[in-house]
């Protein structure tokens, strides 16, 4: 059951965030006023505590819950950002300028199942062309080495996992579900702000830091899957997926440390 006394964070960030913004603040280049306006909005979001929301989580349900397998992963410093492609910017001073993915029902940040599937598939050779033969062979070796099977047909495994090849019914395919926050340490704060400083072509021009919303370190996400039999076992699939998530991370800016995950000790 959804707790209606707890504001939906997605609504706060994308809808309520700009409510009350006056023409005076926008037209008169009132940067001090803009910063004050958005500080109040930002504080409301950044002070959200997980214990106020955990009862709103949609628990993954199925007629046979034994079919659902989970992987628990914890964020590391500096945190995780997901959904930066969603527009969230007016150019005013003090606002958070990058998007974040929020689940519509719970209002909590989440990782869409389609993104989970895409992240996992990115290490398989199908995304590489003949011009990338060296990278393709490296990915094949990566998967074979982890599964300790040098004869494994990795292309066949990829087609089975991500395209459902070999399945007579869509119900016999592997399913990649949304990943949700399931544990937050300490005071329960799970969102924070951070800054990126883009540097333009002019080295003499002062860079303009971009403030954005992120998921803090030490936040546990649970990834949900329904595995079917096939080229490799369900246990092997789970272990392979966990390794991929550890090795390449999730979300945006992984090249500068965001989105790195470790196994949860829960």
UniProtKB/TrEMBL annotation:
One of its GO terms (biological process) is defense response to virus. Keywords: Antiviral defense. Residues 73-261 form the CRISPR type III-associated protein domain. The keyword Cell cycle does not apply. It comes from the Bacteria. It holds the Pfam family RAMPs. PANTHER family: CRISPR SYSTEM CMR SUBUNIT CMR6. This is CRISPR type III-associated protein domain-containing protein. It comes from Anditalea andensis. The lineage of its organism: Bacteria, Pseudomonadati, Bacteroidota, Cytophagia, Cytophagales.
